[in-house]
């Protein structure tokens, strides 16, 4: 596995999937562009609360509207063989039916990543390089953990554009999935509001 010295193990997705079968239950691993990355286990409570708030808010909206979209949190893999990737976004939105027993998808619509000092560069650069190549992806949302601020990337007519959203009174609109979330709800019980 990779370590602080900068030496990393590279492998194909098929080999990574075999490796996952023997991984310790207490560890989380990702494959990003063929590079094996050990994930942090045991994030700060604020991270977990934000992830729960996003997933809960989205699920409420999906059920109310009868949407085929679903939100998954931190344990459902996004896999792509052509991109040699197996990633665990903090929140992953998938629209449409899933096969019974599925443990991964290759057609996400929106991944959310909650940024921390240890993951920000990987989420902002390495994962983004992979995400933007997925044809089904319509939005990518980076959520700052320590203040009410989001960076949203939208695919509009085949090109990616970015937009910042800031403050508890702001609203995140995700037209591709027909959902809106107030930042006040995303950061509920993290920041006084």
From TrEMBL:
Putative restriction endonuclease domain sequence ranges: 14-182
Xref: CDD domains: DUF820-like
Protein name: Putative restriction endonuclease domain-containing protein
Organism of provenance: Methylobacterium iners
Classification of source organism: Bacteria, Pseudomonadati, Pseudomonadota, Alphaproteobacteria, Hyphomicrobiales
